[in-house]
Each structure stands twice: as structure tokens, then as C-alpha cells.
Amino acid sequence: MRHIAIIGSGPAGYYTAEACQKQFGEDVAIDIIDRLPVPFGLVRTGVAPDHQSIKAVSRRYEAVALTDTVRFVGNLVIGRDVSIPELQGLYDAVILATGAPSDRPLGVPGDDLPGVIGSAAFVGWYNGHPDHADLAPRIDERDVVIIGNGNVALDCARILAKTARELEESDVVAHAYDILKKAQPRSITILGRRGPAQIAMTPKELGELGRLERASVHVDPADLPPTSVDEALEPGQRKSLALLRQFAEPSPEKVVAIRFDFFVVSERVEGEGRVERLVLERTRLDAQQQSIGTGERVTMPADLIISCIGYRTPPIPDVPYDEVRGRFANEEGRIRPGLYCVGWARRGPSGTIGTNKPDGFLIAEAIAADQPAAAGKQGRAGLDALIAERGLEIVTFRDWQKIDEAEIAQARLGAPREKFVRIADMVKAGRG
After folding, report:
1. Which residues contact 122 (CB under 8 A, 6 or more apart)?
2. Containing H/E element for 269?
3. Are residues 54 and 179 located together in one domain of the fold?
4. Domain boundary, last residue among 291, 307, 323
């Protein structure tokens, strides 16, 4: 029997488990280990709560989790409860699928002022991640600045701008719903260091901004490129640019204004005791379509800054780490003999949920090539012995099903669930 441990129960983890099942058949036992008592990672706490159709992919992971060869081991912290060297002593292969849940710092003077938060923290707050449940950002009658031109920036702006009615059928958690349904930002500004033709926003998500009840979207026509550039763009980019051109046309003002401000880069954050304004430098594009500073400075009011400029994989003791790229040091997923990484932990935060599927097959094939035969290690029996010896309280997938049932049962009217946001409450619900 070949024994494999996968650290992380998000999309990368479950796609890799599925790939290992197909690679090794019935002759494999896979333990999927997560520090939280609940599975599915980014699908649960990263995907926007009003995008329930995307969250439905968890049904595929559940089908994998309920097979005889796969086991979920929740509420087990690697590096605290069990070490990587210990796991390598027990399993033929250990695969790190921990994602990139930490915010990349804004990296300018003043970015440590209260009121400057990263998108992982803000998204985690409204999605019920235990690490961010106490964030409680100040929103009402505030000037909100969102830095970044990707879909996460759109998610943050959309959730801030939606009415209570528009959020009813989402699984935004109660502590965030209570604030969002009462709060109304004065303005929301989305900043990008390059121009409209270079945004990483997809048309579907961008188009959602134009259908909000209380928010109007505005683009400065002077920022738009000539239509002659469209032919060189990918189809999705052309559609997104067409939407931005629509937003640049005159339209009725609604109670919340969402404004795109292109060709700016953050220089410093200012304020007495908390953020009050953001100083920016105007940029332009060089011949390679990269942004360069012009020397012109502008200042805008900012009571809340949400930085959506990327993510990093947190280091784990005893694992080589690439500080520059913010991921585990690896060569095509290989870290050292018997230790691998997959998904964002391997390549950095890029791609969609589905991008992790071929990644999983890459690692399964690498394991087969590196280890033609199983080494006769203890696997899950050895892990269970360590857990018992140390008095650790783990959560199984059956326990998760009880948590799932409890969350669905306590949902507000119209919502799919009300998530537990405290680990102790999750564990208690898992005990039934």
C-alpha cells in the first residue's frame, strides 16, 4: 500500500487526491490534512459569497472525500501538532497544497496604519474565516479605496456596494451581513497602475458591477485607449474593455459611486492614528506596456484601503521557501525526495480553481516516476498513533457533514448556510 499525505483541503488538495487515485488505483491510502476543522479551503472562504454556482464545485471534492482511499483529517496544524519530518517518516509522499492565504504587503510607508487591510483579510472577514472574524472594518459613510485590477478587487467592491436584499441569498456570514446591510460607503475607488486594456478582470465579474441596485460605475474617458488597440487583445480583454467604455458614458448617479482610477501607483499612506488619505504617483505605459512613474503626485481621501495586489504562501518549518516569489522552493513541484507541492503553493497565486486540476496530475505522475514502489511505511496508522499520543482532537469528514448540516439548519431566510466562524464551535458541531 502506498501512503500519501496532502496538506491542505482546498481545490489543489482534492484535485491532487483525485489524480493520485487514478494514478495508483486501489493501492493507495490518502490522508488530506487541514489546520481548520472544515474542508474545501478557497472554495469556502475565498470565493465570493454571492457566487454560489462556483462554490458548487465542492460536490466534486465531496465525492472524492467519500471514497475508501481518501480520509479527511481536520483541525491538525502542521508545524505545531505534527512536523513535516514526522510526516515524511510516515508517508511515501507528502504534498503541500496549502495555497497562498496570506496577503502580499502593500509595501509603502504608512501601510501599517489602522484601516489598511489586505484582501485576504477582508474577504476572509465576510466569508467567515476564523482568522479574520474579528476584523469589523469601518465602512459607513467612508471613502473606500481598493488597490488592484483583478477579480478580487471587483469582489470587494461589489460586496461593499450591495444592498441587504442583494446579499440575502449569499452565504456572507452574520457578523459581516449585519454591518454591510446598515453601512453605505460614501465612495469606492478602484486603482490600477496600468490602463483599462491591461486589467485582469474578467467580463462576467466586471459586468456585475453595472447591475447593482444602489451603485453607479464611472470611468474617465481620458483613460481609455483608442479602439484600434482592441484587435490585439484576447477576446476576454476586449469584452472587459467594452464594458469599461460603457461605464465611461454618462449615466445617472446612484447613492454609491464606484470609480475606476487608472495609471496610478501607491506612494504612501497618511493619517493621524489611522488612514485618512493615500498619496499616489501618476504612471504611464512604456513600450513594453509596463507602468513607469511620471513624477506627478495626487492625493485622495481614504478612510479604508483594501489592498488586492497578490498573495503569499505561509512558510512551514523544515520546508525550503522562496522569499522572492512567496511560495515553496521547488522544481516542477519537487521540493526534496518524498516532499512535493501543488497549486498556488507550487506556482504562486495564479489561475482559476480549475487550473489546479492539471497540477494535481503533474504531481501524481512525479510521485510515480520518483517512487516506482511503495516503501512500506506506516501511513495513517502511524499518524493516528501520534494523534492519540499527543491528545489531539481531529475532525473527520463525517464530523464535517454534521458541521455542514448545522450550518444549513441555522441559515437566515434565503441564505444557503450560516457558517461557524470559531474553531471551537466547528469542533463542537462536529461532535453532534
Report:
1. 132, 135, 137, 156, 306
2. strand 264-270
3. no
4. 307
